Amino acid sequence: MSLSMTSSVSLQVRDLHFSYPDQPALADGWSASIGEGVTLLYGDTGSGKSTLLRVLAGMQQASAGQLHAAGVALDAEPEAYRRQVFFCEPASEAFDQLSVRACTDLLGAGDAGFDPAEWQRLVEAFSLAPHLEKQMFMLSTGSRRKVGLAAALASGRPVVLLDDPVGALDARSIHGLWRAIERRIAQPGRAVVVASSERITEVPLAACIELPLG
Ligand SMILES: Nc1ncnc2c1ncn2[C@@H]1O[C@H](COP(=O)(O)OP(=O)(O)OP(=O)(O)O)[C@@H](O)[C@H]1O
């Protein structure tokens, strides 16, 4: 089912509720229209950034509310919804036995808009070239994160969710990350949600969502 909405809205959140058992709600009737460009999901440690990204990715179920990504409803078409959104858990061990190349292939599977040239630029910017044939478990925490970030920023999916993307990155890679985000948002119809406990000054923000949600 498609939603009638302006094409600039990439992610529509309506009346979303989420709480872990016996804990205060992280979202209690949250609505938002996330459009093109960079949206900062800003909040302190433990304010719910990672959880809300998982909910937006369609990987963690909210107790109520509706989500649409690029006009596709999560409840009506969950697989199609997830194909609109790129989200890779930074600490995931799911890819441990795969090589960096195989992991990237998996993250880009079914993504007709995946941009190999952009991925190669990120491999250079993140100094990943010597690691491409290594298995993921052999990589440092920072390099593992770079593999996910390179796949995210080369992805053709309209919505990309990044959880604390600068965490564990060296200065050169951080520079490469922001330049790649700039290239991405220069293209129409692309939204990047960055969850962070730091303000962002490196790229212009389309919007900022502050946690806890009011
Ligand atoms: N699986 C879980 N079960 C129960 N509570 C959880 C679970 N995961 C997270 N929490 C709690 O939910 C709250 C939000 O956690 P979350 O990891 O989403 O916050 P965050 O803003 O991403 O934090 P950080 O900046 O440290 O990554 C915290 O109080 C956390 O302890």
TrEMBL record:
| Keyword check for Chaperone | no
Lineage: superkingdom: Bacteria
> What are the alphabetically sorted keywords of the record?
ATP-binding, Cell membrane, Membrane, Nucleotide-binding
- InterPro entries in alphabetical order: AAA+_ATPase (IPR003593), ABC_transporter-like_ATP-bd (IPR003439), P-loop_NTPase (IPR027417)
Q: Which GO terms describe its molecular function?
A: ATP binding; ATP hydrolysis activity
Q: Which residues form the ABC transporter domain?
A: 11-213
UniProt cross-references to PROSITE patterns, sorted A to Z: ABC_TRANSPORTER_2
**This chain belongs to which protein, by name?**
ATP-binding cassette domain-containing protein
Q: Which organism is it from?
A: Acidovorax cavernicola
